[in-house]
Amino acid sequence: MKMPPLTLVIGDKNWSSWSLRPWLAMKRAGLAFEEAHVTLRQGDDTKAQCLAYSPAGKVPVLKWGDETIWDSLAILETLNERVPGAHLWPADGVARAHGRAISAEMHSGFTALRRDMPMDCTHHRPGEGMNDAVAHNISRIIAIWTEARGRFGVTGGGPYLLGPFSIADAMYAPVVSRFDTYAPDLVALGDRDSVARAYMETINAMPEMREWVMDARAQMMAAS
Question: Would the pTM count as exceeding 0.85?
Answer without folding.
Answer: yes
